[in-house]
């Protein structure tokens, strides 16, 4: 049985819907710039211009919530636009997030620490699970709601779980993806790990130093063949394969040879029934940390041997949006499938000496692209791969 | 210098939560990292950077510089006395 | 059927590595503390020094499970409602109190929800499917449903668990955001599930979650009907609240034993499994997780011989 994508939505620093994101990809314009908010102004970040209140207004949201939940609502609403709720179509929502509503609770907690009175009501937005419940409520979904929290692979894992829930017949339709707002907590966290680049990030480049953080959300609507017969929706892509494996190497670092990454890619290929040769483009995890890009490069070499397909990391556009990245990049993959795009890896100059791999350097359209493999690796060694195919 | 080393040992125990150790358990020249030594890892290396910053005002911008500096209490003490 | 091969819990009860936890269980009263095993027996000292309570509990319960079953886990699914609160709070304090640019990273690294499942895989050198679910009071149930799905897909030895830890800060939210009269507690329950019977006594028949305002009793009736039985066939109801007290043959409100943590329904599975060992005439137990309004988790557990 095939799993079809019948809707997608995205918001990131390069655009507030999929059309705007496509335009930015096409013009090779990064969304990463000097931050504008108090907690981002010292850094280069992939920040969405609007404040929470402005976002709620612009997108006619019914709830005030954390930035993570708000961004999720916006992308999920775009994805679900034109889809109708129907008691006959069991619909679930699975969203990934790394720190949930931390962006608002950290402000209240700061007041608490400094002895000022904190608004206790703010903490209701904190739990990661609550962000998904709020997104589900915005769409009117009340059956199965779930949140995946596996750091940077969360959205990819949500997409994977949605497909499995559909295949098992527990759901007919699933809204799946991930969301993360920028927070002082994650900025300070990645800085403390000393993998935070003060300059523009350079994925797969010999001189790469680390990530630029970003924020955003990306969601897909998945339906089975049976469901499509009822909804009459046009399939926009096929979710062909998925895989998750544990690197089990180190708390924060990936194994040098990319063992977990290799397992995830192989497992996704096997679910899709495809050979490495069938893949036409890889949207890499490519965070631009010295460790990830080297490890991922070795993993790609192990899986694809000497004929490595065109690959790139679009985190040079959006920054690393953590739990949202797999969702945003899944939307980019669908855009790429349908328009034959190869997406450039901005800021690349010099191949990593040890691997010699050169990513896609410029934007092009009209390529023959049937299958795209997309990687998402979370720390703690949580490695996931999904494969999207042309209908 | 020996005062510095004793202080360092106490600070290492505190910063890295080595509750079961006393300063006397750490030899001046024993490797701190890897299975032969205290078994510390790359997360501890980051904690050493914090330790040097907060206790001695010494900044290390590139974690890869840490490897030689954090080899043992002796190398750490050397580095501190040269850079303070 | 999803057979419960082994189950371990670390809670405020003396529940770890017990033949039958009912020999030890008593309702929590007054001051009580987490009853911790000697974690050094399970976790290398070099790793232990960094680990918060939730990680110690989770890794230890998971390792104790792995010791009891021959096969390596081929999937790991963990649920946690609030995750690693101690490290989260610690890092929040760090970023608000340390003035310089150099911050200690350890609390941040260990603050993410997937540290529990990640550390389990790291410790066991396990490369299998590794998932972390978080859905407030239904965190255990959504993790369990993933575990059951893994078995349907052909996995043989699936580790499913849940863990949460209490921090003093939660007291500030009592009465406003968290309505409970029970003490805030910590707990972890991990179990090995398999499609093969092995030496198991009981099995999980089904698990369902919903997020609607539909009447609880109607949902329970529909759930039981879908599993070919009715309330009359259920010998014990383990419930987060008291809605079914007058309708059940036997009724236990499990927070009286666990205290308040949002994934405590995982411990109710342990209570159910060991109850069936003790009560040879009982065959079906229903866990009703109605801890939070408009969220309902239903888990049906039965003695292995019972048909449907």
Question: Can you describe what's shown?
Answer:
The complex is a heterotrimer of chains A (391), B (84) and C (308). Chain A contains twelve helices and twelve strands. Chain A has 391 residues and is of the alpha/beta class. Chain A has one domain: Thiolase/Chalcone synthase (Peroxisomal Thiolase, Chain A, domain 1, 3-Layer(aba) Sandwich). In chain A, helix 9 packs across helix 10. Chain B has a single domain, classed as Non-ribosomal Peptide Synthetase Peptidyl Carrier Protein, Chain A (Orthogonal Bundle), CATH 1.10.1200.10. In chain B, helix 1 packs across helix 4. In chain C, 29% of the residues lie in helices and 21% in strands. In chain C, helix 2 crosses helix 5. The longest helix of chain C has 16 residues. Chain C is globular. At the A-C interface, helix 4, helix 5, strand 5, helix 6 and helix 7 of A face helix 3, helix 5, strand 3 and helix 6 of C. Chain C: InterPro entries: Ketoacyl_synth_N (IPR014030), Thiolase-like (IPR016039).
Salient structural properties:
heterotrimer, A: 391 residues, alpha/beta, Peroxisomal Thiolase, Chain A, domain 1, 10-stranded mixed sheet, two-stranded antiparallel sheet, 12 helices, 12 strands, 34% helix, globular, C: 308 residues, 2 domains, 9 helices, 10 strands, 29% helix
């Amino acid at each position: 049985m095939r799993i079809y994508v019948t809707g997608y939505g995205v918001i990131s620093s390069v655009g507030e819907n999929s059309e705007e994101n496509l335009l930015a990809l096409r013009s090779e314009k990064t969304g990463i710039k000097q931050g504008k908010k108090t907690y981002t102004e010292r850094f280069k970040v992939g920040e969405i211009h609007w404040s929470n209140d402005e976002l709620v207004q612009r997108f006619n949201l019914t709830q005030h919530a954390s930035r993570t939940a708000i961004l999720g609502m916006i992308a999920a609403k775009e994805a679900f636009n034109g889809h109708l709720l129907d008691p006959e179509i069991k619909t679930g929502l699975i969203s990934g997030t790394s720190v949930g509503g931390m962006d608002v609770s950290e402000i209240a907690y700061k007041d608490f620490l400094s002895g000022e009175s904190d608004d206790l009501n703010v903490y209701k937005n904190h739990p990661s699970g609550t962000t998904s419940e709020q997104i589900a409520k915005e769409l009117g979904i009340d059956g199965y709601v779930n949140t995946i929290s596996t750091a940077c692979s969360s959205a990819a894992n949500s997409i994977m779980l949605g497909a499995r829930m559909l295949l098992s017949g527990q759901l007919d339709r699933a809204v799946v993806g991930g969301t993360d707002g920028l927070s002082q907590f994650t900025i300070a966290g990645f800085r403390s790990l000393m993998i935070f680049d003060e300059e523009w990030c350079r994925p797969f480049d010999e001189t790469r130093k680390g990530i630029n953080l970003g924020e955003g959300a990306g969601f897909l609507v998945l339906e089975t063949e049976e469901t499509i017969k009822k909804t009459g929706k046009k399939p926009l892509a096929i979710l062909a394969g998925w895989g998750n494996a544990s690197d089990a190497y180190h708390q924060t670092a990936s194994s040098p040879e990319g063992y977990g990454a290799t397992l995830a890619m192989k497992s996704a290929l096997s679910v899709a029934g495809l050979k490495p040769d069938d893949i036409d483009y890889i949207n890499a995890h490519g965070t631009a940390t010295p460790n990830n890009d080297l490890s991922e490069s070795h993993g790609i070499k192990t899986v694809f041997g000497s004929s490595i397909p065109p690959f790139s990391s679009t985190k040079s556009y959006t920054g690393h949006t953590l739990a949202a990245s797999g969702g945003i990049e899944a939307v980019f993959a669908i855009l790429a499938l349908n328009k034959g795009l190869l997406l450039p890896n901005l800021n690349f100059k010099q191949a990593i000496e040890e691997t010699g791999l050169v990513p896609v350097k410029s934007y092009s359209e009209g390529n023959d692209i049937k299958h795209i493999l997309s990687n998402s690796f979370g720390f703690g060694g949580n490695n996931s791969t999904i494969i999207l195919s042309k209908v | 210098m020996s005062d510095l080393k004793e202080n360092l040992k106490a600070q290492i125990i505190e910063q890295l939560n080595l509750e079961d150790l006393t300063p006397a358990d750490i030899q001046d020249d024993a490797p701190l990292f890897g299975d032969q030594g205290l078994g510390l890892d790359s997360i501890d290396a980051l904690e050493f950077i914090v330790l040097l910053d907060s206790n001695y005002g010494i900044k290390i911008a590139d974690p890869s510089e840490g490897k030689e500096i954090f080899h043992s209490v002796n190398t750490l003490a050397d580095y501190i006395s040269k850079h303070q | 059927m999803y057979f419960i091969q082994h189950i371990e819990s670390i809670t405020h009860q003396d529940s770890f590595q017990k033949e039958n936890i009912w020999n030890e269980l008593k309702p929590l009263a007054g001051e009580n503390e987490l009853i911790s095993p000697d974690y050094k027996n399970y976790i290398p000292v070099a790793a232990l020094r960094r680990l918060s309570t939730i990680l110690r509990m989770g890794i230890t319960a998971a390792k104790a499970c792995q010791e009891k079953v021959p096969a390596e886990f081929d999937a790991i699914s963990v649920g946690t409602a609030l995750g690693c609160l101690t490290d989260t709070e610690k890092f929040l304090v760090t970023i608000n109190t340390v003035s310089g640019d150099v911050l200690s990273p350890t609390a941040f690294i260990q603050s993410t929800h997937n540290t529990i499942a990640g550390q389990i895989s790291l410790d066991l050198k396990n490369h299998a499917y590794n998932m972390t679910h978080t859905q407030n009071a239904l965190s255990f149930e959504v993790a369990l449903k993933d575990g059951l799905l893994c078995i349907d897909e052909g996995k043989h030895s699936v580790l499913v668990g849940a863990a949460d830890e209490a921090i003093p800060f939660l007291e500030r939210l009592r009465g406003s955001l968290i309505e409970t009269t029970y003490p805030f507690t910590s707990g972890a329950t991990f179990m090995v599930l398999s499609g093969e019977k092995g030496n198991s006594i009981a099995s999980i028949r089904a698990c369902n979650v919903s997020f609607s305002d539909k009447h609880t009793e109607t949902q329970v009736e529909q759930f039981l009907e879908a599993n070919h039985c009715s309330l009359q066939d259920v010998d014990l109801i383990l419930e987060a609240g008291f809605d079914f007290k007058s309708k059940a043959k036997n009724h236990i409100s499990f927070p009286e034993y666990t205290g308040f943590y949002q994934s405590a329904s995982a411990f109710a599975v342990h209570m159910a499994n060991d109850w069936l060992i003790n009560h040879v005439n009982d065959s079906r137990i229903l866990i009703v997780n109605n801890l939070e309004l408009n969220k309902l988790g239903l888990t049906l557990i039965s003695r292995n011989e019972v048909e449907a």
